[in-house]
Structure formats: C-alpha cells, structure tokens
Amino acid sequence: MSEQLGLFGEAEDQEAKKIVAEEVASPRVQYFDLETQKSAEDVGGWGNIHKMGLAVGVVWDSLDQEFFTYEEKDAAQLVEKLRTADLAVGFNIIGFDYTVLQPYSDFDLQEINTFDMLVDVKKNLGFRLSLNHLAQHTLHAEKSADGLVSLQWYKEGKINKIIQYCRQDVEITRDLYLFGEKHGFVKYQSRSGNPLELKVDWKTANLI
C-alpha cells in the first residue's frame, strides 16, 4: 500500500510540475482599461488628459484568469500590476489610458510592452474605429454605457457601477483581441453600411 501511495504521489507531483512549467511558458497578457474622474471639458481640453484623474482601472490577467480592480488610492498597485505583463493590450491605451495613469507613476508607462488595437486599426485603415463599432460587428456585443455616463456615476459616488462598466470594456477588449488573434481579421461596417473585414496580425507570440 505504501509503495502504491508513493507512486501516486510521484505522478501527482509530476503533473503539478507540468502545470507550473506550462504557466511559466505562457506569456502574461494583461487586458487593461480605465475610467476617469473628469472629462476633457473639465480639464481644459484633450491636451490635458493627464489631469483627468483615475476613477477606476481594471485588468484581466491571462495567467491568473481573473479581474483585478483598482481605484485612485490603488493607482501605484495598478502600475506595478501592469509592469508584470509580458504584453499589455488595450484600445487607445497608449494615447489615453497611459496618459491618465502616468501622473501616479514614477515609471515611464511607455516602457511596458504594449499593443494598442486602435493604433493598429488606424495604421491599417487610415482612420479610427471605436471599440464599440468593432465589438458590435465582430462579436455582436456592445458597451453597456459610455464615458459620459461613467463621469456622472463618479460625481454621484457610484463606484460599483463604474467598476462593472469598466470590467465589461475589458472583457470586450480581451474578446476582440482574441478573435483577431484566432481568425486573422476583425469585422466593421463601411459608411454606406457594407459589412467588411480588416485583416490583422495579432499573434501574441509575435508581439512579445
């Protein structure tokens, strides 16, 4: 009996080591979005994004397979979390999210290995498309609210509503990226209403 138990324990140990090895081999991809305290109008225009203030930031971690939520008081922890990513993925993350978050960090967020889907879409198409537009046509999903509603919630102290909204944005961001990675395209609609496909090269292995 003791020999059997020993062998079983060894097999379990090997399986555990295999799981750990697979996790180590897998890249840590973090999908990120944030909501602000203030609008562009509140801070004197889009040239002052850095003054908008963090209301809520949400990260979904591909290795931990869970969401991490941060309020303004947790901004330093959010920065540290993003720094652990092999790849950070977002939509307008470089031009907007990082600019909002930078005042809370003594580390240059541009040094994080980042893939911005909006930058890639604009480069390939020559114009911008919204996350909501791409989600509707690619995933048949859409955002539950918008940034203006989120700003109103902040004024009303409804932080949980902002967290739910931001989480949904991160889910959409993640699912859009994974669709593009798997299929090699995302879907959109022309101004005249024609359904179109945009070829993308969103292979994580090539972006790390």
What does this structure look like?
By secondary structure, this protein is α/β, with parallel strands linked by helices. The chain has a single domain (27-207), classed as Ribonuclease H-like superfamily/Ribonuclease H (Nucleotidyltransferase, domain 5), CATH 3.30.420. The chain has helices at residues 2-25, 75-83, 93-101, 117-125, 131-139, 147-155, 159-183, 204-207, and strands at 29-36, 54-61, 66-71, 87-90, 114-116, 185-189, 195-199. The strands form two sheets. It has a five-stranded mixed β-sheet, sandwiched between helices. Strand 2 and strand 3 (66-71) form a beta hairpin. Helix 5 (131-139) crosses helix 7. It starts with a helix and ends with a helix.
Question: How is this fold's topology laid out?
Answer:
Elements: H1 2-25, E1 29-36, E2 54-61, E3 66-71, H2 75-83, E4 87-90, H3 93-101, E5 114-116, H4 117-125, H5 131-139, H6 147-155, H7 159-183, E6 185-189, E7 195-199, H8 204-207
Parallel strand pairs: 1-4, 4-5
Antiparallel strand pairs: 1-2, 2-3, 6-7
Helix pairs in contact: 5-7
CATH architecture: 2-Layer Sandwich
Please give the share of residues in helix.
40-55%
**Tally of domains:** 1
Shape: globular
Mean pLDDT: 89
CATH class: Alpha Beta
The CATH H-level superfamily is Ribonuclease H-like superfamily/Ribonuclease H
Give me the number of helical elements. Answer: 8
Q: What is the number of beta strands?
A: 7
Q: What class, by secondary structure content? A: alpha/beta
What's the story with the biggest beta sheet?
Answer: 5 strands, mixed
Low-confidence stretches: 1-8, 19-23
Under CATH, the topology can be stated as: Nucleotidyltransferase, domain 5
Portion in beta strands: 15-25%
The strand line-up of the biggest sheet is 3-2-1-4-5
Taken in chain order, the helices and strands follow as: HEEEHEHEHHHHEEH
What's the end-to-end separation, in Å?
49 Å
The Cα radius of gyration reads 20 Å
Oligomer: single chain
